[in-house]
Design goal:
By secondary structure, the protein is mostly beta strands. It is built from two helices and ten strands; from the N terminus they run αβββββαβββββ. Helices cover 9% and strands 35% of the residues.
Length: 139
Amino acid sequence: EKVAEVCRSAAPLEGRVVKVHRDVTQPEFRWGFVTQDSIGRVAQIEGSHAYVDFPQQKRWHCLARELEVEPIGDEVKMGSTVRLRTNTNPSGGWTSMEGDETGTVVQISGAGVVVAAMGNMWCGPIGEVEVAPEPEDCK
């Protein structure tokens, strides 16, 4: 597991789901609408610079070293069964994802996901969902 974590963090950043590194108090090019809790996808790397699409701000400019990979991006894939993260107040509303309700990821676009749940679609940032644990009766 530790080896997989090191490999993921060493992989190129372009296309990866990231957040601002927890040790960064003031990014080189300022915060804009991005916060320490924001989760987005790297749209482009140019040398030591990165451009990240966050739900709050597209093409946010920073230094690549100011970013860290958010593991949720490697875990949530097309077809994954997901639920809302604990203590999340979803920015897109609850619709069919209330409580521990689960759904299936049917689309991933940038930092957003579309989840089919209970005959409805839920759309929101990838940072608001997590892979649902397998039910006890399926283990």
